[in-house]
Amino acid sequence: MNSMRLKDKVAVVTGGARGIGAAICERFAAEGAKVVVADMDPLAGDETVGRIKAADGKARFVACDVTRREQVSALMDRALEAYGSLDIVVANAGIIHNTPFLELDDATFDRVIAVNLKGVFYTGQEAARRMVERGIKGIVINTASVNAVIVPIGLAAYNASKGGVNQLTKTMAVELARHGIRVNAIGPGSVATDLFRVGDPHRPRGDGPGAQPHPARPAGGTLGDRRCRDVPGDRRQRLLHRPDDLPGRRQAGAQPGDAEGVGAGEPG
Ligand SMILES: NC(=O)c1ccc[n+]([C@@H]2O[C@H](COP(=O)([O-])OP(=O)(O)OC[C@H]3O[C@@H](n4cnc5c(N)ncnc54)[C@H](O)[C@@H]3O)[C@@H](O)[C@H]2O)c1
């Protein structure tokens, strides 16, 4: 049973086409929110919107690369135009590169920071400026990670980006509190998504970011069940959850406070 706690709220979720972001979008829509699914993957984005609409929810897809401020700015304008408000913004888009510290090159480090940290900055700032202008006492949720506080090896850029997200979140929370805007971070543990086997699906490959199909998309179309299947065994054993296991996807028995940190908990 859904309690419609988000009835008529407008939510924007970056990285909303797949994985954790898609689960957040579907749950928010099930709780009555009008959801803008923002992502660089239009095919998966349309599928997420399709699932939401099939369940009588409201959603639309907006293409957005969170590393590009002008695209993030346009995203917030599109949400306002389409749905008339901007109540909840989830800065969730993220990538991972697994490279030993001694081999980590500038381009890889810069790219992880650009998506995971600067993308969160752009998303939060473009959203918060519009909330302040309109007197909206909104909510910003940044997806950090357990890697913000623990140090799995080979993930220097990722770990640093997520530590940065935690500190950015705390700073945003303190500075935006006087405007009535709440800012929190969530720190998931391991969830078996494409993050583990694709890592950085939109890495520029010469003909432009996002121009290629998502590497996780099976030939011929539908996504199917891609979860643990292709994750190497040693990593799979460490994967504890799937997006379907998230509280936000539990249809029966969901408890208040299960909604992935919406207005809950301490920042960071
Ligand atoms: N899966 C985990 O175990 C785990 C654990 C902790 C934190 N996280 C974080 O959760 C978030 C979501 O991860 P996921 O596991 O669902 O990954 P995922 O790869 O399944 O989904 C990530 C989504 O982000 C999109 N994306 C990537 N770069 C983008 C960009 N520049 N602009 C817009 N969209 C972009 C992708 O197209 C994809 O739809 C990330 O921030 C990740 O770091 C994941």
Care to describe what's here?
The chain has six helices and six strands. Helices cover 35% and strands 12% of the residues. Strand 5 (139-143), helix 5 and strand 6 form a beta-alpha-beta unit. The chain has a single domain (10-200, 227-249), classed as Rossmann fold (3-Layer(aba) Sandwich). With 268 residues, it is an alpha/beta fold. Mean pLDDT is 83; it is low at 207-211, 219-243 and 245-268. The structure holds nicotinamide-adenine-dinucleotide. Nicotinamide-adenine-dinucleotide binds at residues 14-15, 17-21, 39-41, 44, 64-67, 92-95, 115, 119, 143, 145, 188, 190-191, 193-195, 201-202.
How is this structure best summarized?
The protein is α/β, with parallel strands linked by helices. It has 6 helices and 6 strands, in the order βαβαβαβαβαβα.
Bound molecules: nicotinamide-adenine-dinucleotide
Low-confidence stretches: 207-211, 219-243, 245-268
| CATH superfamily grouping | NAD(P)-binding Rossmann-like Domain
Terminal Cα span? 30 Å
Strand content: 5-15%
> What is the name of the CATH architecture?
3-Layer(aba) Sandwich
The shape, in one word, is globular
The CATH topology is given as Rossmann fold
- Helical content, roughly? 25-40%
Using the CA coordinates, give the radius of gyration.
17 Å
